[in-house]
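Protocol step 4 of 6: record predicted structures for both targets in the notebook before any analysis. Target 1:
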Amino acid sequence: MDIAKSGIWKPALGCGISEQIPGYTLKYNAFFEKNNYFFTRARLIVEGGFVKLFPCITSSIFTGLMLRKLKKSMSSSSSKSKTDRTSFLAIFISISFIITEFPIGIVDLYKAIWNVDSYSENAQYIILICDAIFTMNSTIHCFLIFFMSAQYRRTFWNLVQYLNCCTEKKIFRVTTVQSSLQ
């Protein structure tokens, strides 16, 4: 991909800015345009299939297996509330990952297989919505885990205390001892 000048942005007359600012966009270079965008399509298939869809499918399978193990361990132990929290976190993390990544994988495969420009704007809207959900999810993720996991809180506070010790200046006292053997 190349960065190419796409035009000049001109501010409105009443906004008080007289400077014209050039606008840039990403464009496919000649390598990606060869053979009816073969390399672009190959990249989209790899990205959509292996980077987006495959992790969603395996995440679902592993979350299901983990919840099954948790349910078995819950029946044999008395720590029901800890298991319930862990189950909720595992389900929340898995579902939020699937909601944000699976549609992008479908859109990437769609763009790779059917090179139709009429749906590219709608596909871009789907990608933007999923990216916005991903950003919100990433923002609240650490807080959710902080409030639900005692081990996470303990590790966080230990890290904060360690960083606080690193920023304080420690005064070391050096004493010299003279030997009587001289």
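Target 2:
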Amino acid sequence: MKTTTENLTEKELKKLRLIIFVLSCILFIISLTQTAYITEPADSIASHAFIAFLTGWLNFMGPGISWFANPLLIISWILLLNNKIKFSLISSFISVLFCLSFLLFNKIALDEAVNYGEILGYGTGYWFWLTSCIIALIGSILINYKEKNINLDN
């Protein structure tokens, strides 16, 4: 039978997992409403984060490789909610790496005819997206640390 202290800590961890999930999701959703990157020509619809989310995988041989942060982030959320913290930590870490890989590219396809434009800067959508992945990673690290401390105390 579990003691009151153990039940309390389990409830706290569950609440913390939920807070991290919700915060990361909110930042991700906000990112989709923003400009992901700034290009020349500036009127490229592909620079809108929601369009980049839908079509980014099409350019997987270039900057689109960064798009793979999205399924990894979603997987990390699922693992986090299902208390698979170590796997969530790994998934969110790789997600952050994929997000950061976007900074390594200086050109991106602007349309379906694969006309390329220079990436001049990064919009708020990109930074919200990256922050969403980082929150999932930091949250997984924090929960993993707290779980280890609970196990050491018992």
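Step 5 preliminary note on target 2. The longest strand covers residues 116-122. Strands lie at 37-40, 107-109, 116-122.
Proceed to step 6 after PI sign-off.
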